[in-house]
Amino acid sequence: MGCGSVLAYDGLDVQKWVVDNCSNYGYVVRYPKGKNAITGEEYCPWHLRYVGAPHSLIMNANGWCLEEYVAYLQAHTKDNPVKSNVGDRTYEIYSVPSMGDVTYLSVPLSGNYDISGDGSTGYIITIEK
After folding, report:
1. Exposure of 15 by Cβ count < 10 A (0-12 exposed, 13-18 middle, 19+ buried)?
2. pLDDT 10s digit of each residue in the chain, 129 long?
3. Which of 41, 67, 122, 124 is most deeply packed, by most CB within 10 A?
4. How far is CA 110 from its chain centroid?
């Protein structure tokens, strides 16, 4: 099958289900419609990025692209985390700025948590309570 026989994906019609529901599975449209001034890219409904729940659900509920979400999280620290409920799970999410070559992160001694880079200036800590 050559490239000439590949169907165009525009995120409309039956393909719209993916755009409308990907956040339920931890994915976001990386370059959403109307956010090109922020992302630097035109709308690309086929470009999905896995960020995980609860992040995808928070972004979807607020209509944020990834850059907006990271900026939002940078205002939240361990002492003032974002709190989110997904089903029967509760999460606390906060940002820790990078301190250069060595950054100390405060995480629980036990339980489930994730540490991920925010793609620019620090780390995002997600703790399942």
Report:
1. middle
2. 444 555 566 666 777 888 899 999 999 999 999 999 999 999 998 899 999 999 999 999 999 999 999 999 999 999 999 999 999 999 999 999 999 888 999 888 888 999 998 877 899 999 998
3. 124
4. 24
**Edge-to-edge strand ranges of the sheet holding 122-128:** 82-86, 89-97, 122-128, 112-117
CA angle 63, 94, 98 (to 5 degrees): 110
Tokens 């995808």 found at: 56
Terminal C-alpha separation, the chain = 48
**Residue 124 CA, distance from chain mean position:** 10
38 burial level (CB within 10 Å; 0-12, 13-18, 19+): middle
Nearest to 81 by CA among 92, 68, 70, 96: 92
